[in-house]
Amino acid sequence: MSAPLATRIAEEHAAASESLPRGLAGAERRRKAIEALTAQGLPTSRDENWKYANLRPLERVRFTPAAAPPQGSVTLANLPPPLEGYARYVFVDGRFTPALSTPAERGGVRVDSLSRSPSVVLLPSALAVQGLADARFALLNEAFATDGAAIRVASGTDCPACLEVVFVASADAQAGASYPRLELEVEAGARLGIVERHVSVGSDASFVNSAVDVHLASGASVQHYRLQETGARATWFDTLAAVVAENATYRVHSVGVGGLSARSTLRVQLAGERAELGLFVASLGDRAQVQDTYALVEHAAPNARTEQIFRGIAAGRARVAFNGKIVVGKAAHGTDSRQSLRGLLAGPEAEIDVRPQLEIYTDDVRCSHGATAGKLDENMLFYLLARGLDGATAQRLLKWAFLEDVVAKIEVPELRRQIEQRLAGQMPEAAALQELL
Amino acid sequence: MHSENAMLKIDNLHVRVDGKEILSGVTLAVRPGEVHAIMGPNGSGKSTLAHVLAGRPGYEITAGKILYEGRDLLALAPEERAREGVFLGFQYPVEIPGVNNVYLLKAALNAVRKHRGLAEVDAFEFLGLVRDRMKLMHIEDSFLSRGVNEGFSGGEKKRNEILQMLVLEPRLAILDETDSGLDIDALKLVANGVNTLRSPERAIVLVTHYQRLLDYIVPDHVHVLVRGRIARSGDRTLAVELERRGYDWVTDEAA
Known about the structure:
The complex is a heterodimer of chains A (437) and B (255).
Chain A: H1 2-16, H2 27-40, E1 87-92, E2 95-96, E3 109-113, H3 136-144, E4 149-153, E5 158-169, E6 177-178, E7 181-186, E8 191-200, E9 207-216, E10 221-229, E11 235-244, E12 249-256, E13 261-270, E14 276-285, E15 290-299, E16 305-314, E17 319-328, E18 336-345, E19 351-360, E20 366-374, H4 378-385, H5 391-407, H6 413-426, H7 431-434
Parallel strand pairs in A: 1-5, 4-7, 5-8, 6-9, 7-9, 8-10, 9-11, 10-12, 11-13, 12-14, 13-15, 14-16, 15-17, 16-18, 17-19, 18-20
Antiparallel strand pairs in A: 1-2, 3-4
Chain B: E1 8-17, E2 20-30, E3 35-39, H1 46-54, E4 60-68, E5 71-72, H2 78-83, E6 86-89, E7 96-100, H3 101-115, H4 123-136, E8 147-148, H5 154-168, E9 172-176, H6 184-197, E10 203-208, E11 221-226, E12 229-234, H7 236-245, H8 248-254
Helix pairs in contact in B: 5-6
């Protein structure tokens, strides 16, 4: 299954290669990506780390980048309301779209469109590490990417409410793919708040394959909000790789509600002493949705900390999965890692898979993990009924409360409100809950 | 007992849990304005009775009936009972992190009001009402923003039950071992809260193991439940006698 797919990708790539922008990644680099991808083959559901993902839609999508959409086909009214004070950069089907963007000067922050600024030097990608099985979709992105945001934050910059990057998918998967790309380099001691959103406009059956590359230098601090709310029939793949240097803090808040088949692969390396990672993930699945997340965190240096929280709710016939692996390397004594993974089954045909994994190669570490998957607590439910709440409201309230551990970490009030509304909207009979937001 | 004008009328109630009979023919009538204490040793079926009245799932009613204000209580869903004015104070109130105390109070009060055809409570008035009752129960302001019972001590949870009761103003309050685990100061607070609610149109059923609570909430009737049956009924002096002679006295008689 995967070999013919890789062959088809290579063929599509050969046909499209002349038209791919060279400033972004030279032909040589793209060719290498395709070679590596062909050699490794695309993952199949037999692969341990891919068994919960829905890979079937790949058989039907077109990998060649979608043509630029006709001007005016996506308007401001199609986009989520902008966050006050944030400079906004909008990409439609993987191409920077100035007409929809509201860039703003931010001292010490430089944002470039990868295709328009050939001078921008590509980062040595943490994504494309050879042999890393879970970088295959990043290779696919590298082979086909049409554009991307390159963000450099200079040393000492303080911009906690800074940038919003919105990736819009508009083309149908039959017409072509969308390749969002984000490269973020934060220099020593800088502080940044960034919001990354993935939405759909037009066709709700797009194929999106996003790649995000993050480098945090010594003492840098980044709040990275990621919101996946693509169309109801979209296929969404995502690969994020981050390297966190000593004393740097990287907090990723990831909320996934959209798409029919969504898979996010995260790989964070705590490369320096006392580096810190907060990974807060909420996934909601309903109907026949598949929401799958694989997170690999590598502790490569001493005294680094990880806090990982996952809350997932599966309703309808949905499958919601989180596979969280933490590897504590030989050098990583003094590691402090906490994992709390919880899934909620909200329908008799739904599926929850939560899987904490811990590999420790040194002594003197503190690693805790808890994982649960279950239905709504009967005692809680009865307590609410006994106070006069009807069954539907009580269930909705408890689902809401279940996500609180992740939602409460969102420090941008306006974004939190938007996300709360989005989460409420995802739950059936949301109208009544909207009243309390 | 005169049961014609009873608010709650339990008649020959038999209840099974997991195939085992827990209540074996309970008969009891509670009239408006009365306070009844149901006492009994552990395992006698006290909490089962309280749960059945509130409509908790998992109990099989094999015989008997319960009338509440002339209606078949067992035919009502738990939330309908609550809206009709039946309140259960839980022995073990659950913690619900993420659901705000104030939100629950407001949702509960509005559910009752809606049922009675009243408009939703005004936000300002509501907060005034809650603060007033919180003061009575010595509950701190920070409570307002916390999750339901989240991180509360045992005593705080019980005080919260009474606070909810005072805000909802039920017609029939069933308090399941509300005194257990309370120190003397908390016990007095809880008793004071319950006494505030006493009125000619309300009835209160206290389920308790110890006589201690009854020093502060003086009952009109005391019943002793033994092996799923009311073995003896009397006035408050029965509770005093139980305290003095222990449950064995009634248990042996009932055997």
